[in-house]
Amino acid sequence: MKNAIGMLVVLVAAMASPVVAQDYDDETSVARVAYAAGDASYQRGDIEGWNGLRVNTPLMTGDSIYAPPEGRIELEMENGAVVRLDGGSQLDLLNSSGDVTQLGIDEGVLDLRTRGGSRNATLEIDTPSAAATILERGHYLVDVNDETATYSVIRGSLSVSVDGQQLDVYEGESLELTNTDPPTYAYTRTDSSTPFQDWCDRRASRYERSTSVRYVNEQVVGCEDLDEHGSWREVNEYGRVWVPAGVAAGWAPYQSGRWIWQDPFGWTWVSYEPWGWAPYHYGRWAYVGDFWAWVPPPPPGYRGPAAVMSIQPRYAPALVAFVGGRNWGVGISVGGPAIGWVPLAPTEHYYYPWQAPPRVVNNYRNITVINAVTVVNYNTFATEPVRPIRVAPAQIRQAPVLGPSASVAPTRQSLVPFAAPGGAAPAPRVRAERPLVARLVPPPKPRPFDQKVAEIERTGKPVVAPVPKPAAVGKPFTPDAPAPAGTRPRTRRGGRPRAGLGSRRRGAGPGSARSHRHDAVVRVQGRHRRARDPGARRQPGGHPVGLPRRKERSGRQCPAHPRLPRRAPTRRPGLTRALAGGPGVLPGA
Fold it and tell me: Would you list the domain boundaries of the chain?
């Protein structure tokens, strides 16, 4: 047993509230890196340069990731989507906010599976050839190279918008767009028997077989990793809790990792433990008997202790309370002031930097546990991984309580959790005339850190709106909507965007009697499906009608983001097998 070292009681002013003071900014969504193999790298939207990408790196709107030829990456989104990238693929998070997720891929292979989230959410995949909108939960594959862009539906349905036209792809079908003059399209049967797809299936089966997903709210990201690294136990005070396995004596939560700065959340914990996402960004920690236990947000319909039922399934940068600061000295051996943090226990309140603190008494119960408070040198808190220092319990009792925000200003060293692969930045991407085609207006790039740091130092708080959001963001392009750098609107020939929001009529897919309901998608006249006879692909005069050459396509052309070297053009097996009707040329609108 560990001995108590006293009880710290803190009174914070404002209005009373539940465990989470109020809904956090619904326009901010964070993606988790769940897997990264090879020298994977990423670029934050608010700084230049590429850095190492590892498990538990948090990603937001404006960030880009790259899987090297020998690597692979898996992302878990807050909306329930799981994105996996094959080697040689680059992905841009054009918009990851609220109910809109907009991904950009200009080279590589992307596997997308949806397993939850809001039914009103919009998910769009933008490529240099077209913009694809996911119409229902399912399993999708996008393969982009210099010659073709292929959209495959393993399960579900999607709609591909290109040059004012809309092509539907249904379960078991693939749509290939070629970069010929004029561009052509062909429907083929889906072929998912590739090593990459086998790997994706194995990764997906972890969630399907997971025991932990039964005990945790479905909005919690990363809970399938708990099965391999701990066990579930029943305790009287909190019901079913998760206990990590293989931790050393004296271990406590929030000790293996480092702090990085992310607006609008501020100081964000990045764990070096492979399971360290769900237990550090959701729920609470309790010391039960002689072990630490994670108390998760319960699943819908749960009936149990009030302390558990009040825990909301909301992402937080770290569920801790900070103590100490620049005026707290703990001894000569530390070499300066110190700062520490303690995990929040059930019933203890957390509020976000943009919220007023609630008027509640936080009895920080975990501070009474030996080693529960992790203390580091104040001067290294923002610049390097955690290296705990030993502090006497009596000194911890005297430490000033800072609440959920640390009084430390960030620097450029505070922005990324891992160094670049091999100690050097990855090769820069090649700038090319390959802007992405978008149906919805993505937000501009985030404000650069160098432009925000003075405001952060002045206010002591993170920037609430790090990504500018004009009124047009998240809506279909209109003639007066500006196109952010690296994207262009999906247009008709002549440069006029063809977009309008509405419900699409229920209708049967090609060769299928099933009907699909598609809500809140763009209504475009002149929808085209697979041609049933060769004559259907040409105008009456026999002249094919297609898209202009890529370099001549009308619409706003914007500078592309820097690009990594492209992989060699490849064709996946089966793309030359056409269904009845064969390839078709996209007619004009």
Answer: 8-21+219-414, 31-77+79-214+503-538+558-589
Q: Is the distance from CB of 16 to CB of 37 less than 8 angstroms? A: no
What does the angle CA 170 – CA 174 – CA 178 come to, to the nearest 5 degrees?
Answer: 130
CB 334 within 8 A of CB 389: yes
Confidence of residue 397 (pLDDT cuts 50, 70, 90): confident
pLDDT band at residue 505 using 50, 70 and 90 as cut-offs: very low
CA 545 to chain centroid, in Å, comes to: 39
Two structure tokens written together for 566: 């492209």
Per-residue pLDDT, averaged over 120-148, amounts to: 93
Segment holding 559, helix H or strand E? none
Mapped onto helix, strand or coil, the DSSP state of residue 436 is: strand
What are 59's two structure tokens?
A: 């990603």
- Cα of 307 vs its chain's centroid, Å: 29
Do 148 and 184 meet the contact criterion of CB atoms below 8 Å apart?
Answer: no
pTM above 0.85, yes or no: no
CATH fold of 31-77+79-214+503-538+558-589 reads Jelly Rolls (2.60.120)
Rounded Cα–Cα distance for residues 196 and 86 (Å): 6
Taking the C-alpha atoms of residue 324 and residue 338, their distance in angstroms, rounded to an integer, is: 6
The three-class DSSP label of residue 202 is helix
SS3 of residue 174 by DSSP: strand
Residue whose tokens read 């670049």: 420
Q: Which tens digit of pLDDT belongs to each residue from 263-273?
A: 999 999 999 99
Q: How many CB atoms lie within 10 A of CB 513?
A: 6
Alpha carbons 589 and 576: distance in angstroms, whole number: 27
Q: Which two tokens stand for residue 21?
A: 């003071």
Residues in a beta bridge with 105 = 91
